[in-house]
Amino acid sequence: MKNIVVAGGARGIGGAISKRLAREAARLYVLDLDSASAEATVADIRRGGVEAEFVRCDVSSWADVSSAAELIRAAAGRLDVAVNSVGIFDFRKGLMDTPEAEFDRIIRVNLKGAFLFSKAFVPLLRGEPKGNMIHIGSINGVLAGAGLSAYKVSKAALHMLARCLAIELAPEGIRVNVVMPGWVETPGERAWAADELAKDPDFFKKCAARSVPMGRLQTPEEIAECVAFAASEAASAITGALVPVSGGLGI
Ligand SMILES: NC(=O)c1ccc[n+]([C@@H]2O[C@H](COP(=O)([O-])OP(=O)(O)OC[C@H]3O[C@@H](n4cnc5c(N)ncnc54)[C@H](O)[C@@H]3O)[C@@H](O)[C@H]2O)c1
Fold first, then answer.
1. pLDDT tens digits, residue range 94-152?
2. Of 215, 135, 133, 117, nearest to 181 (Cα)?
3. Three-state SS across 8-20?
4. Of 121, 151, 183, 204, catalytic
5. Is the minimum distance from the CB of 116 to ligand 1 under 6 angstroms?
C-alpha cells in the first residue's frame, strides 16, 4: 500500500484523483486551500479505512509547500506517488486584455506552484521503491487561442517543466508524467462559465457536442483512471509523457 499526496485534491478532478488513488493507499494527504471540500474528501476516504489527512497549503508559497513536505516526511517517511492537480483559470481574455496582476497570479499558481511542489516532494520520492510524480496539465497547453491565454501559457510551460524533470530524474528511476484533461465539468469550470450556465444550464453539453470529437465532456473519474495508470507499476517505462484524456479534443 502506498503513501500518496494530492495537491488540489479537495474537489473537482483532484478530488476524484484523491478518491481513486485512495484505493491503493495506506496514507493519503490532500493539500489544498478549500478546507470544506478537503475535509469532506478526507472523511470519505477515511470511511474506506485509509488514513487520510488534509494539510492546508498554498502551492504557490514555498513556506507552505516545504512545511507540508516536512510534515509528511516526519509522519510517513517517504512517498510513492505525488500528484499536483492545482490549477486556476483566467477569464477568457486574450493576452492584450490580460492585466499584469492576473497574468502573475495564473503563472504563480499554475507554473511556480508546480515548480515548488516538485522541489519539495521529489526528495520524498527517492528511496525504495522509487516514487513517481504526475502533474495535471491541460489540452489548452497544446492548443493556441485568443482567449484563456495566460492559462494556456502557464499550462504549456508546466508541460515543459514536467518533461525537463522527467529527463533530470530518469537516472534515479523517478518518473514524471502529465495528464492533460480536455473538458471536465468541475466546481472550477462551473465558476469559470457561471454567466453562460445562468443563461443556459446545458451550455457545457452543447459546447462539447460541437467541439469535442467524441461529442461529450470527460468526467473527473475518467481523468483519475489515467492518473492511477500513470502512477502504477503498469506504467514503469513511461516518463515525460503528455497524455490527453480529452475525447479527441486537441489531438
Ligand atoms: N475542468 C476542466 O475542464 C479542466 C481541463 C483541463 C485541465 N484542467 C486542470 O485540472 C486541474 C483541476 O481543475 P478542476 O477543474 O478540478 O478545478 P477546481 O477549481 O474544481 O479544483 C482545483 C483545486 O485546486 C485548489 N487550489 C486552487 N489554488 C490552489 C493553491 N494555490 N494551492 C492549493 N490548492 C489550490 C482548489 O481549492 C481546488 O480544490 C487544474 O490543474 C486544471 O487546470 C481542468
1. 999 999 999 999 999 999 999 999 999 999 999 899 999 999 999 999 999 999 999 99
2. 135
3. CCCCHHHHHHHHH
4. 151
5. no
Substitution candidate for ligand 1 out of 55, 86, 185 with most atoms within 8 A of CB? 86
Q: Residue range 199-214: average pLDDT? A: 95
The CATH fold assigned to 2-183+221-245 is Rossmann fold (3.40.50)
The CB of 6 under 6 Å from ligand 1? The reply is: no
Q: Does residue 112's CB lie within 6 angstroms of at least one atom of ligand 1?
A: no
Distance CA 232, CA 178 (A): 14
Q: Ligand 1 atom 2: the closest Cα is on which residue?
A: 184
Say whether 237 sits in a helix, a strand or coil. Answer: coil
Ligand 1 centroid, distance to 209 Cα (angstroms): 23
Any idea which of 40-54, 79-93, 216-230 has the lowest mean pLDDT?
79-93
183 lines ligand 1 (CB under 6 A): yes
pTM of the complete model: 0.98
- Is 151 a catalytic site residue? yes
Average pLDDT along the chain: 96
- CB atoms inside a 10 Å sphere around CB 21: 26
Q: Helical H runs in 55-148?
A: 62-76, 100-106, 113-125
